[in-house]
Amino acid sequence: MIADRIRRPALLDRIVTPEQAAALIRDGMIIGMSGFTRAGDAKAVPIAMAARAKTDPFKITLITGASLGHDVDRMLTEAKVLARRMPFQADRTLRAAINRGEVMFIDQHLSETVEHLRSNQLGPIDYAIVEAAAITEDGGLVPSTSVGNSASFAVLAKKIIVEINLSQPAELEGLHDIYFPGRRPSRVPIPVVTCDSRVGFPYVPIDPDKIAAIVVTDEKDSASTIEPQDDDTGAIASHLIRFFEAEVEKGRLDLTLQPLQAGIGTIANSVLTGLADGPFHHLRMYSEVLQDSTFDLFDAGKLAFASGSSITLSSACAERVFSDFHKYKEHLVLRPQEISNHPEVIRRLGVIGINTALEVDIYGNVNSTHVNGTHMMNGIGGSGDFARNAYLSIFVTKSLAKDGKISSIVPMVPHVDHNEHDVDIIVTENGLADLRELAPRERAVEIIRNCSHPDFREALSGYFERACTRGGHTPHLLEEALSWHERVRTEGTMRLD
């Protein structure tokens, strides 16, 4: 089996243990590691790095595609290996260290990281640690269930450590489309013109002499943490389906819609699953993460093709998909995240972007990342890439958080990730606010009336009416605008007795 997966015989003598590979990493290095939303992540070497650091302390800058599985971020944080981390994370232990100021976290649009590496604003990468399903006869790396940034890490790094994962299906070979934009300022247009365009290689072309070590693993991806649909996420999906149906009636869309993107998470996943109950057909996806909902839509006969950068599934869905992968493979492609999230391609294809907000203010500004304006949750991820460039930029959120103590619709967000200019539609379980071509005062009326929870609607309306007496294009009471968040800080609730 190993010879089938490592098809360049000269590389077989570079197989080492995870501990031997981890010993190559030294203090102060910049490490690029595969992994995008818990899929296709390096699984053995980083754990060996954490174990080694307990007796041989060292610190690194760690760059990935997105979040990692197998508690790698937790273990590296507890071992005090991480000095700097970018561009995204979703681990509770690491999050706490970031918010204590112990790990410097750079929250970055997912399409930008490799651009910074390519132009020498960041790096150089000392080692790329990447998972692969196979190595070709020419030394090319066949990615596994994600591409993310790992292809560019491998090309740009000084040296590469490859984890060959025998648990990843050999049928993954041929799934990927590895394309690298040229260097600026003479870059030519990216030739992706449809969701199913294939414009690159099915493997990562590298110099095999850069491979310093190969570690053989047999560990499945961490399962998705997506929760099942509930009444609120079901209501959000229903509001969006009715909105899309109305857009079809107005001639702005047809029943195939436009290519769909959905951010990672329970709400966005539920919204896509809900499309199976609508009249839509021959749908296409041009997204980052292909979740359970992608394959639910395939099985419902609704989805024709899906382009992404990773496949992140629950245990039950992964068993269903990978046990019958040939059924889906010809309808799928995985790309580097700088292509899946590239503004040029998103705008060209007219993508409908559906992403999740932590909170939204009455004028349509969205906070996706910072709890109470100060404490990092996960990161902006790819939502900004899509929000700025999508045909329709949609943000979804439940109207209440923390058992009803916090309203997700607020007078002013204390941290802005997506400003009002990049937000077209807001949806909660209570309704949908279409903000297109509306002035700020009109937006406020729509958001308060349609999206806020009834328990907070009167307070929001009162704030807006009083702010309007002060005048202004975007009326605010600056001395009161963040009082709701101050109340959370001091009293743990936004509610007034």
Task: Please give a quick description of this structure.
With 497 residues, the protein is α/β, with parallel strands linked by helices. The strands form 8 sheets. It has a 7-stranded parallel β-sheet.
Task: Describe it.
It is built from 18 helices and 26 strands. The mean pLDDT is 96. It has 497 residues and is α/β, with parallel strands linked by helices. Helix 8 packs across helix 9 and helix 9 runs parallel beside helix 10. The strands form 8 sheets. Strands 4-3-2-1-5-8-9 form a 7-stranded parallel beta sheet. Strands 10-16-21-25-26 form a 5-stranded mixed beta sheet. The radius of gyration is 23 Å and the shape is globular. The longest helix is centred in the middle third of the chain and has 19 residues. Belongs to the acetyl-CoA hydrolase/transferase family. InterPro entries: AcetylCoA_hyd_C, AcetylCoA_hyd_C_sf, ActCoA_hydro, ActCoA_hydro_N, NagB/RpiA_transferase-like, Succinate_CoA_transferase. This is Acetyl-CoA hydrolase. GO terms for molecular function: hydrolase activity. Pfam families: AcetylCoA_hyd_C, AcetylCoA_hydro.
Can you lay out the helices and strands and say which pair or pack?
Layout (H helix, E strand, L loop, with lengths): L1 H4 L12 H5 L7 E4 L11 H9 L6 E4 L8 H7 L3 E5 L5 H8 L4 E2 L7 H6 L8 E6 L1 E2 L5 E2 L7 H7 L2 E7 L45 E7 L13 H19 L10 E3 L3 H9 L8 E4 L2 E2 L1 H8 L3 E6 L1 E2 L3 H8 L3 H4 L2 E3 L2 H4 L2 H7 L2 E5 L2 E3 L4 E2 L2 E2 L3 E2 L6 H7 L2 E5 L3 E2 L4 E2 L1 E2 L14 E4 L2 E4 L5 H12 L2 H15 L14 H9 L6
Helix pairs in contact: 3-4, 4-5, 8-9, 9-10, 14-15, 16-17
